[in-house]
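Assemble and predict.
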Amino acid sequence: MADFEPKIVAFLCNWCAYAGADLAGVSRLQYPSNLRTVRVMCSGRVDPDFIIKAFQKGCDGVLVAG
Amino acid sequence: MTQKLLEICGIGRQRLHLAWVSSAEAQRFVDITKKTVSEVKDHGKFDPKAFKLELEAALMTVNGEDVRWLVGKQISITTKGDVYGRKWDMEKYQEVLDTILEREYQKNLIYLAIQQGKSSVREVSKVTGLDLLNISYLLADLEKTNRVEFSGMTDKIPSFAAL
C-alpha cells in the first residue's frame, strides 16, 4: 500500500478555495497532485448527492472547500 | 450530515473533508490538501463495488423527501419555532435529524434488498446486516407508505415484494 495514490474529488468554491488553489500555484507552493478539481460557483452548491455519486464512481475521498 | 451518513454506511467519515479557505490563504490550502490526502491514504483504496447497495441506499436517502425537508427547515425551526410555536434547540433537532437519517437509510437498504429479490426477512437481514426485529418494524413502515407489499407465504415464511 506504500505507493497507493488516492483519487480525491475536490469541490472548490470559485471565490475562495479555487482562488486559493490558484494562488498556491502562482506562488509555486507544492501540493499533492491527487486532487481532481471541480469548480463550483459557491460551496453551497455542493449537494450530498454529488458526494455520494463521486464515491459511486470510485473516488477514494472527497474534499469540499469554500 | 453526509459525513454521518457515510459513517452509517460503513464507508467512514474520514473520506469526506470540509474546509474553509479564503482566496488569500494559499498556504492554508496546501496544508489542507496535504492533510486530506494523507488521511484518505490511511484509509486505503475505496472499492465502490463492495458498497454498491449501501451507496445506492445513501443516494436515495439524501434525495428523499423526509431528509430534504428536515435539513431545509432546520434554521427556521430552531430559530423561529415550528408551526405550533414550539422552539427547538439545535441539539435536539440534530438528534431528530440523525435518527431519521439512519432510519431512512435502513429503510432504503431494505427496499433495495427486496427489489433485488430477497423476499424474506431473513434474506434481507443477510444482505443488509440489520437485525430481524428492526427489519420487521421498518417493513411495516415501508408497507404503510406503499413501497413494499406482503406477497404471500412461501413455505410458512412471509415474503415481500417491492412496488
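The longest helix of chain B spans residues 90-115.
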